[in-house]
Amino acid sequence: MSGSVLYFSYTGNSKKIAKTLAKEVKAKLIEVKPVLELPYVFWLSLSFFPLLGFPVKDVEVKDYRVAVCFPKWTFNCPPITELLKRGVFRGKKVFLFISYAGWREKEYADFYEKLFESFGAKVQLVELVKRDELKSSQIVRFKNLWML
Ligand SMILES: Cc1cc2nc3c(=O)[nH]c(=O)nc-3n(C[C@H](O)[C@H](O)[C@H](O)COP(=O)(O)O)c2cc1C
User: Is the CB of 102 within 6 Å of ligand 1?
Assistant: First the structure.
């Protein structure tokens, strides 16, 4: 079954979620890598500016269906915003999985849902995952929508 699971992960939680999802639906795993490895304080500073991108290595997303896993970072996750601005998700069916620790995650999820839509993606699902604690109900929901 064709499809991709794309992820950006700084401390490994989104990566773990992405690997589980990719295995469940037999999708390709694609990692988003910033061109520079920045220390925490730099990422934290950049995460305060909504809509700010950050250069990432080129990724090729050929599939129509794409799950996108990334962390909740203050108001912005620049590597993911960068891909949105590049039009990587335009016209695609996307399934968002956002890993968070516990501060204002719902607002962030709503913000990114609208942002993906505004950059031409068709958002099918938005799931919030505490750290890497993906629930079986979330996997079931994902698989059901992925098959449609
Ligand atoms: C720069 C930065 C900003 C963060 N901001 C938030 C936040 O606003 N709210 C929150 O719940 N967690 C925040 N976190 C915690 C991450 O969302 C959480 O640890 C997540 O599971 C990390 O995913 P990852 O391991 O894929 O990078 C932040 C982490 C970093 C590094």
Answer: yes
